[in-house]
Write a structure and sequence with these properties.
Elements lengths: L6 H13 L10 H4 L5 E8 L6 E8 L9 E8 L2 E8 L10 H13 L10 H14 L11 H4 L4 H14 L3 H14 L4
Antiparallel strand pairs: 1-2, 2-3, 3-4
Helix pairs in contact: 4-6, 6-7
């Protein structure tokens, strides 16, 4: 059986393969080749109008060190980009902003201390945060400025929501709270 027009397909594929870029060739710029970026996590911040979200990305800052980890959090807004440097050792979970907690969670995941959840520690903490806000136990912040300036007691929120989940028979969610408390509840 002959399908009209197919005779040229195999010839065209061979021509395209001859022109293809070979995997061993790279177009990286030299300054980027020596220092690859490692994205630790991505998330979104809601703007004042709920139909807009801003992207948020975490990676290690250039001057980060194992004993003094510094996370560079980039917030991508419409037409602009904000960069914030979060020193992990200085984050106080009893009085931290949303961006500080995002950086801390990304660091915990990268160092193997995170919740081990499929979507990362920040996502686990984020669903706790949203449910706590729905229950009047936490304030949601927006991307314009509050995500940096509003400091909240994340540890207390986790403890309250963990108890609420447990009393409601939502044991998986309560266990997630145990994981969050294990990670964040130490001597922070």
């Amino acid at each position: 059986m002959l399908i009209e027009g197919c005779g040229n397909i195999s010839r065209e594929i061979n021509i395209q393969k001859d022109k293809a870029i070979l995997p061993e060739k790279s177009f990286e710029m030299e300054e980027n080749a020596s220092k690859p970026e490692k994205i630790l996590g991505i998330s979104f911040l809601n703007a004042d109008a709920n139909n807009v979200s801003y992207g948020m990305r975490a990676e290690y800052a250039e001057d980060s060190a194992p004993d003094n980890p510094i996370i560079k959090v980039t917030i991508q807004k419409i037409g602009s980009e904000e960069v914030h440097f979060i020193n992990v050792n200085d984050v106080n979970v009893r009085s931290a902003s949303e961006v500080e907690m995002f950086a801390l969670c990304c660091y915990a995941d990268d160092t193997g201390q995170g919740t081990g959840g499929k979507f990362g520690t920040w996502q686990t903490l984020n669903y706790y945060r949203v449910n706590a806000a729905d229950n009047g136990k936490f304030k949601l912040t927006n991307a314009r400025d509050l995500c940096l300036s509003v400091k909240q007691n994340w540890l207390s929120m986790i403890e309250q929501m963990r108890q609420l989940y447990f009393e409601s028979g939502l044991y998986k969610q309560a266990l997630d709270g145990d994981s969050l408390l294990r990670i964040l509840g130490g001597d922070r």
